[in-house]
Amino acid sequence: MLRKTTLDRPLEHLLTDRARRALDLAEQQARNLGHDRVTADHLLMSLIYLDEGVAVTTLRSLGCDLRDIHAHATGVGLGHVVVLARREAAGLRHRYIGTEHFLLGLLNEEGTAAALGVGLHQTRAQVIKVLHGEAY
Fold first, then answer.
1. Which of its termini does the chain have fewer beta carbons within 10 Å around, N or C?
2. What is the residue range of 44's domain?
3. What DSSP string describes 60-117?
């Protein structure tokens, strides 16, 4: 039942404040670059730009140097990543979508995993540790 709730509720009711800021920053970045749509690349860069939250904490705890991460032109639309983030949240039995779910959604795309140098399963396990205060 929880899975259906997370997947079916309107996005605006699920987003944490930080996740909402990440989406806003991604839209702003796309606009500033003159792009006609927001992509996974814009979202990844907005998560890094925020420099806070579970996504960033997780990446740092996995040894990622966030200064060296650049957009990698996957061209994957933001809508697709949001669908994947919803699935990740539901899979973790969360009733919200935070930056960690966006990160996991992004890592479902092969190019993102290669750009970050971390895998989906490894990152998902680390997200759980960060959420439980077991990793910093």
1. N
2. 2-131
3. HHTT--GGG--------BHHHHHHHHHHHHHHTT-SSB-HHHHHHHHHTSHHHHHHHT
